[in-house]
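Escalated from tier 1: flavin mononucleotide holo job.
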Amino acid sequence: MNRLKTNFLGMEFKNPMVTSSGCFGFGMEYKDYFDPNVLGGIVVKGITMEARDGNYGTRIAETPGGMLNCVGLENPGVDYFENVIVKNIKAAGIECPIIVNINGKVIDEYVEIAKRVEKIAEVDMIELNISCPNVKDGGMAFGANPDVAGAVTKAVRAVTTKPLIVKLSPNVTDIVHIAKVVEANGADAVSLINTLLGMAIDIKSKKPVLGNTFGGFSGPAVKPVALRMVYQVSQNVKIPVVGMGGISSTEDAIEFMMAGATMVSLGTGLFSNPILPVEIKDGLERFCEENGLENIQEIVGAAHQK
Ligand SMILES: Cc1cc2nc3c(=O)[nH]c(=O)nc-3n(C[C@H](O)[C@H](O)[C@H](O)COP(=O)(O)O)c2cc1C
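Tier 2 regenerated the structure:
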């Protein structure tokens, strides 16, 4: 019996665990560590219409309990993704669902890339990133304004039949409101959280450590914030929630599911422990056995106060 089997947006996932965009490349990069098919699904690095070099200077800084990054959406662009990367993913024997994280500077660009991705048969779902803190145009600016978040969701919804997940920014005062707006505009699910905006200063040079001054803060230190947001959002929308932010153990994944996440996503935790997905999959199976659960989905929202 597969106690981890999860139906998410009409597709069967072997388990409720995916990898977070930007933290697992395109899925092949980790295959010396474990078989990527252990995962429920893979969310690939954010893709844009044109290739992007990303930001200059230092892009990563470690912090107590987490990390800052200002990668700036470096990616090879949608043409290369379609013509080379997708083929490589399949040639590597990866069979689990592929979710593509899409990005744009303006709404029209989101629409254009969604139209392109719509035609790529190997892509199972789209994750609309309206929450990247590391780019000058678009990104977080879309996710922080409810009207714009609604407009971009609606525009992309109109051009894709693939399941649409909208990725929310934690850098807002009321994430529940934004979640409701994107739901009303056609999102099939929401994923949260993207990174929190942060910075570090080098006291010797008296300069910001990151080349872009600010960066996205992620890892175990953000978990309580992410968990709180998943808990709040999942009680206020009818669509499923993909929970992420600092998951680095089976217990963390269980907490996110009890907070209301149908799926959990692993990001920064992979950098310090590349076999984290294997450990969490085994851990979730053990948890089901020890607690007499027929399916892990029985715990979703268990922590909600009735
Ligand atoms: C190096 C790095 C690159 C990232 N790139 C993307 C990206 O391209 N698109 C996106 O939506 N999120 C991106 N994220 C955010 C993660 O997908 C995730 O939402 C966030 O890091 C919180 O989860 P975590 O604490 O488990 O890492 C990136 C995060 C990191 C650390």
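The radius of gyration is 18 Å.
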